[in-house]
């Protein structure tokens, strides 16, 4: 089935919140678990939807069902306003099907349309598939936080990755 990527709106909030909790439960390499992300995160997500100046979310839809998302957060302060921090999540059942690639492509298109200069993200060193995807799309490792997260298998490093876009000076 084809995957559609669409910008999220307020009406999508309840289903997006549910999707994010499912992804957090499925992916041990993520920092927070579904149980840890309760009301404060839901409140922050709802607030982001209400104040869409700096935060934008795109959804991956398959037959009308949300199977992934990407959130872009632009810098709050003037000196980092042209930088976009991204968070990507795809349901375990739908990984390896190009959904992350489509979400990242749409996010980059959105950032370029607004004249952004840089995109950045964090990824667990154990998430080798995602690291390869990011590298294939032009992201480079820029730093490492050693043993930054603890999982059932021990401690994982967090790799900071970034990509410079060809134009800059805009705002998401």
From TrEMBL:
<keyword id="KW-0012">Acyltransferase</keyword>
<feature type="domain" description="N-acetyltransferase">
    <location>
        <begin position="3"/>
        <end position="166"/>
    </location>
</feature>
<dbReference type="InterPro" id="IPR000182">
    <property type="entry name" value="GNAT_dom"/>
</dbReference>
<protein>
    <recommendedName>
        <fullName>N-acetyltransferase domain-containing protein</fullName>
    </recommendedName>
</protein>
<dbReference type="InterPro" id="IPR050832">
    <property type="entry name" value="Bact_Acetyltransf"/>
</dbReference>
<dbReference type="Pfam" id="PF00583">
    <property type="entry name" value="Acetyltransf_1"/>
</dbReference>
<dbReference type="InterPro" id="IPR016181">
    <property type="entry name" value="Acyl_CoA_acyltransferase"/>
</dbReference>
<keyword id="KW-0808">Transferase</keyword>
<dbReference type="GO" id="GO:0016747">
    <property type="term" value="F:acyltransferase activity, transferring groups other than amino-acyl groups"/>
</dbReference>
